[in-house]
Amino acid sequence: MSPTIYTIILSSLATGTIVTMTSFHWLMAWIGLELNTLAIIPIISTLHHPRSTEAATKYFLTQAAASAMILFSSMINAWNTGTWDITQMSYAPSNTLLSLALALKLGLAPAHFWLPEVLQGSTLLTALIITTWQKLAPMSLIYMTMNNLPSTILLMLGLTSSTIGGWSGLNQTQTRKIMAYSSIAHLGWMAMIASIMSNIMIMNLMVYLMMTTALFISLICSKSKTIQDTATTWTTSPTLAITMMLLLLSLGGLPPLTGFLPKWLVLEELIMQNLIPMATAMAMSALLSLFFYLRLTYTTTLTLPPNTLQMKFKW
């Protein structure tokens, strides 16, 4: 892809998110989401490989369906209340529809089916864009409509996402799929706290964005597409191997690392709201995620010389 076209596409991607984040009218928010989707399709399908074409098609269909649902819910709301203002979503059925549409757009379970497949079909750099930048616009819509969204649905979405993200991640050998399930689990934590304290959700999102970006950059530098590839990271750069270990443990939520802070605050807030069974279930699901992060950590840094490596060297 020529640099000019790539620049245009990336600027469209940025513009789409910014338009959604700064709009108060539902049509403008929808335009931003559509611009975002249309800009990332060519980025996913640049590989000219059947898998990337399939990934681009899956991404397009799910995002277009989610955008249509968002537009539909806002139209029902406008029909019943007479306003297109994003913050004035007061009609209950349209709120329910909106929360399901945003779940599909973000990849929250049970509407998560497209995310691992799309990430597996795209390059590591594209996967980085999908798991970080592409989450900003829907999260800003959740933030703006927070006071009206049904909290029961959000709590259930959060719980299922966290659990499914943990369970399904255990079975993976591809780093991109592991990162996809990690993303689903983290978004579950954000959905869980969204209806209770939105500022914790924002902090959670920021920490997630930083850690995911850093880990994807580490994977890109070490060209690690499978768990086996991570074992030879130390041959390329020992410093990178140590950094990856810290990042993975942080993503898993081990104290005293950064990733522990959002989980701690979310659990504390859930207990304050007397949602103790929910907090227990979330803590248990975090252990599932922690297992596959620890497995990655083990292959990355705990199989150093003079121990026997389980894989061939890259060189």
Structure description:
The chain has 315 residues and is mainly α. It has a domain at 150-304. It has helices at residues 3-22, 26-44, 50-81, 92-106, 114-121, 124-131, 136-144, 151-169, 175-194, 198-221, 227-230, 233-236, 238-252, 260-272, 276-301. Residues 290-315 form the NADH dehydrogenase subunit 2 C-terminal domain. It is found in: Mitochondrion inner membrane.
Secondary-structure map:
Blueprint: H1 3-22, H2 26-44, H3 50-81, H4 92-106, H5 114-121, H6 124-131, H7 136-144, H8 151-169, H9 175-194, H10 198-221, H11 227-230, H12 233-236, H13 238-252, H14 260-272, H15 276-301
Q: What attributes does this structure have?
A:
globular, 315 residues, NAD, mainly alpha, NADH_UbQ_OxRdtase_chain2, membrane
In short:
The protein has 315 residues and is an all-alpha fold. The chain has 15 helices and no strands. The two termini are 30 Å apart.
Query: Helix segment count?
Result: 15
Instruction: Give the beta-strand count.
Output: 0
Q: Mean of residue pLDDT?
A: 91
The fraction of residues in strands falls at under 5%
Our measurement of the CA-to-CA distance between the termini, rounded to an integer number of angstroms, reads 30 Å
Radius of gyration: 20 Å
Shape call: globular
**Topology pattern, helix = H, strand = E:** HHHHHHHHHHHHHHH
Q: What structural category characterises the helix and strand content?
A: mainly alpha
Protein name: NADH-ubiquinone oxidoreductase chain 2
Pfam family, one: NADH_dehy_S2_C
GO molecular function, one term: NADH dehydrogenase (ubiquinone) activity
Transmembrane segments: 59-76, 96-115, 152-171, 178-196, 202-221, 233-255, 275-294
